[in-house]
User: Which sequence fits this backbone?
């Protein structure tokens, strides 16, 4: 544990160091609440699968002693040109799961209970990716998702705006940060044990990754296959509607519809 006086004394240097690196959420530790809610649907006309992945959540102190706060992703999501979903943070062509129009990134206001974490109470903003995964883009990861083997995600990001919070009256500025942000923390035991944390007010999103083991322990995965998805209406009902629209019941289009009905 770093002494609080050393943290405060070297705050500017530590902030510069954090800003100079790309943070990756993977790594064994306590929760960063990056996680995944995966819903897979096999499309009727191709083999693509759709995945909803929770990449990161706010109001949790992660294994970097960072507290991501609400609004952290607002600016970067407006400016993002090409959000990538990668395999284990690897910037290689063979490790890209999806990018471009196949990745839709957004923030949803929710609760940890709604995300499936019954042991964690409180509000959060979840950085979420809706991803279309092609079988040909990354065959290995396609198979992992289809078999239900992907359980965790993490975020690759760069720090933009961060503050130091310290629980010591001797350091007035850092104590004010502690008092302001401590109430929103859902895992206060981490802050209580260390007596400090970093508040990340703004970050630049680089990518989201599927990982084997991240710093998160709250990682729900739900998989539903096409056979479990009920059609919105029987095919016979659709034919009846088409027949009622096409008047008169003669001509090439009507003949085609009648052929479908056999």
Assistant:
């Amino acid at each position: 544990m770093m002494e609080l006086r050393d943290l405060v004394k070297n705050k500017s240097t530590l902030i510069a160091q954090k800003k100079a690196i790309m943070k990756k959420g993977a790594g064994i530790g306590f929760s960063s609440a990056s996680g995944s809610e995966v819903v897979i649907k096999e499309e009727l006309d191709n083999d693509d699968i759709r995945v909803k992945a929770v990449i990161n959540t706010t109001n949790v102190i992660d294994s970097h002693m960072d507290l991501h706060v609400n609004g952290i992703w607002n600016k970067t999501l407006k400016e993002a040109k090409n959000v990538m979903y990668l395999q284990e943070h690897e910037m290689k062509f063979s490790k890209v799961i999806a990018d471009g129009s196949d990745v839709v990134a957004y923030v949803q206001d929710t609760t940890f209970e709604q995300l499936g974490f019954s042991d964690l109470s409180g509000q959060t903003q979840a950085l979420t990716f809706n991803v279309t995964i092609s079988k040909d883009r990354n065959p290995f990861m396609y198979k992992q998702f289809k078999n239900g083997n992907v359980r965790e995600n993490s975020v690759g990001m760069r720090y933009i705006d961060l503050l130091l919070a310290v629980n010591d009256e001797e350091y007035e500025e850092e104590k004010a940060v502690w008092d302001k942000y401590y109430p929103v923390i859902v895992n206060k035991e981490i802050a209580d044990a260390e007596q400090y944390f970093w508040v990340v007010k703004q970050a630049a999103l680089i990518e989201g990754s599927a990982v084997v083991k991240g710093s998160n322990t709250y990682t729900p995965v739900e998989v539903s296959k096409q056979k479990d998805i009920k059609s919105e209406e029987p095919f016979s009902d659709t034919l009846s509607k088409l027949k009622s629209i096409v008047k008169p019941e003669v001509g090439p289009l009507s003949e085609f519809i009648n052929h479908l009905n056999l």
